[in-house]
Design brief:
The complex is a heterodimer.
Chain A lengths: L11 H13 L12 H15 L3 E6 L2 E6 L22 H13 L7 E2 H12 L10 H14 L2 E6 L2 E6 L9 H10 L4 H8 L8 E4 L9 H12 L2 E8 L6 E13 L6 E7 L4 E6 L3 E9 L3 H11 L19 E8 L5 H10 L4 E4 L4 E8 L6 H5 L5 E4 L4 H17 L2 H5 L1
Chain B lengths: L8 H14 L5 H11 L8 H6 L24 H10 L27 E3 L12 H16 L2 E7 L5 E14 L4 E7 L6 E3 L3 E7 L14 E9 L4 H8 L4 E7 L2 E9 L3 H9 L5 E5 L1 H15 L5
Antiparallel strand pairs in B: 2-3, 2-6, 3-4, 4-5, 7-9, 7-10, 8-9
Helix pairs in contact in B: 1-2
Classes of the chains: A alpha+beta, B alpha+beta.
Chain lengths: 417, 302
């Protein structure tokens, strides 16, 4: 029988469950059907262990609901980072880690594998039942640490010798780490660095702060690495709406980040369909970096051109074909003393133009790939929209029907009679 | 790459415990405190027993250790790459950091690799020397426990003065703006950094009574439809609030707690979902939506 541990070997297992608890939070135990009930209980217990006070319970007639409730404006550090600090390890791993760095205590200490093994035995001989590490285990660990950049390996004659990597001469950056660990992509790396700082500072708090992207840090880092190397990747794409996973071989071009809903999308070229399309980063896993592609720069500049016609993450369908653009135009009235509405139009419009069309009216116009993406924003001007002119008539009619429906829901028609 | 035990709470905790023992402190209470402060809720059941039983051969059962140096670990490659990436961010100037560090390191990402597509375009002026100087003065005051004397331009164009205790800098990713949250000044709770015209450490004799700035909260309850993937969009959109969801036949109720000062913003955020999200309570919030719709009806769009 396997015993419970608050640490996990595979983060993917818990990634989806954490999002479900945080974003939704109304599912009961019996609804998490993908896992066995014991596995569900273990994972729930882990979340409680990591997130403690943020876990809440609600008893409903149908059963007990568990959810994570975090006001990210109050919490100064992303609580989900804790989950990324929960990797399991063996007794040998942790023993070897601390002894290796004690043996290689400075970059000036340069030792071969046999010398390290001899030193290791000296350390372990002090214990009642000393652990035994064979040569291949230690070599493997040194190789792993070399690839992580914390140990350097070099040839000395015919032998490979090892030393700890130089400590980078870094400026004092405690405040910068506190800030960027929350707002920069892959901010959890900043959190790892903060863990090593003796002086703790909490000078920053964050408004409109979406924290779920923390769970996608590993995927994001791999995609950035691929982009830096201009490489093709193979990723597994699993939508919440489908139980099936698909392998996609794509050229990652740019990460699109929303600070209004917290979603992150990868815009990538899919050679099989000759199109640039978006992929939700939270649906991606298992990123395998393959060979570099000579087409990277050309494709990225295609995306650059498209961006002036993208409101959100919908790019042009086929590359090099005819662009399928939609015209979006709406007019708002702005009364005296409402200069903030004009400011809103100017600062919130991502593309397109705003024109003064009358004493009290302003018109927004744009050509976009997808009118639908703009609808939520246009609705925020409800109370002052005087005209709509969409080339996509279906979307225009839907917009008007939705407003009629809102009148009915809130009894506006009755009130007007 | 990122999910690795070398960054784990357990490794960090064990490093601190070994350091404490090397410094001569083997008090159970102090070592347990290190575990409580640095690891997880149930770690107490694992870490000290594993150390004391010599399961991890780092500390002997008598709490002495063959380890000779306070544990340290060099930066990993990805840590250096991430730092290199943030050194190119325009806001780094606010922190007075020499950006020439890590010259031989490739950044993990550059500004070409990601795009924040829905950030407002009138963000703070991070290149403005005065803005940078004010920001640094505020940080210095917070780090040294000093008070501030601030001159600023109000929303209505008037010059306003404040002596205050700086509590924290609040950053909005959507607005791309910093605000200073203060206490001790009766009329001003938050100050937009970009509105500051003068900012100095206050060394005067006037005593400033600091209190904890209290936020006044309100709750809105939304009825969320299952249509057009609204549930997922709504849950994600409001994910950063303290909230609770309930499921009923064919719809969901979402209770969201928000700062009362943000009510106008909340109203338009709810409106952005159209008829798929209906305000159930409070009556006051519902009234604000009805007011907007009544005005819209008068616009004669339909």
């Amino acid at each position: 029988m396997s015993s419970y541990s608050e640490l996990v070997k595979n983060f993917e297992k818990i990634r989806e469950l954490m999002r479900e608890f945080y974003v939704y939070g109304f599912k009961r135990r019996d609804e998490y059907d993908k896992k066995s009930s014991r596995s569900y209980d273990d994972e729930r217990r882990r979340l409680e262990s990591w997130l403690g006070d943020y876990m809440s319970f609600a008893q409903t007639p149908e059963g007990k609901n568990i959810f994570i409730s975090i006001d990210s404006r109050v919490s100064r550090h992303n609580p989900f980072y804790k989950a990324l600090k929960s990797k399991s390890f063996t007794d040998g791993d942790i023993t070897l880690h601390f002894i290796l760095f004690d043996i290689l205590d400075s970059p000036k200490t340069v030792l071969s594998l046999p010398q390290i093994l001899a030193e290791l035995d000296t350390y372990l001989s002090e214990f009642k039942s000393p652990m035994l590490f064979d040569e291949s285990t230690v070599r493997k660990k040194l190789k792993e640490y070399t690839s992580l950049g914390i140990i350097g390996a070099e040839k000395s004659g015919r032998r490979l010798v090892y030393r700890r990597s130089d400590d980078a001469a870094l400026p004092k950056m405690n405040d910068a780490l506190s800030f960027y660990s929350e707002v920069a992509p892959c901010g959890v790396i900043g959190s790892f660095l903060l863990d090593k700082q003796s002086e703790k500072r909490d000078n920053f708090s964050f408004k409109h702060h979406y924290i779920t992207s923390a769970m996608d840090s590993g995927v994001l880092a791999a995609l950035f690495t691929a982009m830096q190397k201009k490489c093709i990747v193979t990723v597994t794409n699993t939508s919440r709406h489908s139980s099936e996973s698909h392998k996609n071989r794509i050229i990652p071009l740019r990460i699109f980040i929303s600070v209004q809903n917290g979603r992150q999308h990868l815009l990538a070229y899919q050679p099989d369909f000759n199109e640039i399309k978006s992929f939700r980063v939270d649906y991606l896993s298992d990123v395998k970096i393959e060979e570099p592609t000579p087409r990277f720069d050309e494709l990225r500049s295609e995306l650059d051109k498209m961006q002036s016609k993208m409101w959100g993450v919908t790019a042009n369908g086929k590359l090099y074909g005819k662009e399928s653009l939609e015209h979006v135009e709406f007019t708002v009235k702005v009364a005296e003393g409402e200069a903030h509405i004009i400011q809103r139009l100017m600062r919130e419009k991502r593309i397109g133009t705003v024109l003064k069309t009358g004493d009290n009216t302003y018109r927004f116009c744009a050509e976009v790939y997808d009118t639908n993406e703009m609808i939520p924003w246009i609705r925020t001007f409800i109370c002052r929209i005087t005209e709509l002119n969409f080339s996509n008539m279906g979307v225009q009619e839907q917009f008007k029907r939705d407003i009629e429906k809102m009148y009915r829901i809130y009894g506006i028609e009755e009130a007007a009679k | 790459m990122i999910f690795n035990e070398i960054y784990s709470a357990y490794y960090n905790t064990v490093a601190k415990i070994i350091g404490e023992i090397l410094n001569g402190n083997t008090s159970d209470a102090d070592l347990n405190k290190i575990v409580t402060e640095n690891a997880f809720g149930e770690s107490m059941l694992n870490i000290m027993p594993a150390i004391k039983s010599e399961k991890w051969q780092l500390v002997k059962s008598d709490l002495t250790t063959p380890i000779k140096h306070i544990p340290t670990m060099p930066l990993t490659l990805i840590q250096k790459q991430w730092i290199k990436a943030i050194l190119s961010d325009p806001r780094i100037k606010l922190f007075g950091i020499d950006t020439d560090a890590l010259l031989d390191v490739t950044p993990l990402f550059t500004s070409d690799d990601y795009f924040i597509y829905d950030k407002y375009s009138d963000g703070d002026p991070y290149d403005d020397e005065k803005y940078i100087a004010h920001f640094k003065t505020i940080l210095e005051a917070m780090n040294t426990g000093k008070n501030l004397k601030i001159e600023m331009t109000s929303r209505h164009g008037k010059t306003v003065y404040a002596r205050c205790v700086p509590k924290r800098l609040e950053y909005s990713e959507k607005d791309d703006k910093f605000r200073l949250v203060t206490s001790g000044c009766r009329f001003i709770r938050t100050i937009n950094i970009a509105r500051i015209t003068k900012c100095n450490i206050y060394n005067g004799d006037t005593q400033i009574e600091a209190d904890d700035p209290q936020t006044a909260y309100d709750t809105v309850t939304l009825k969320v439809s299952e249509e057009r993937n609204t549930l997922e969009r709504c849950m994600l959109h409001f994910a950063h609030f303290q909230k609770r969801a309930e499921r009923f036949d064919g719809y969901y109720l979402l209770h969201i707690r928000f700062d009362k000062d943000d009510e106008p913003e909340m109203v338009i955020r709810v409106l952005s979902f159209g008829p798929m999200v209906e305000v159930v309570s409070s009556d006051r919030f519902k009234g604000l939506i009805i007011d907007k719709l009544t005005k819209q009806k008068l616009c004669g769009l339909l």
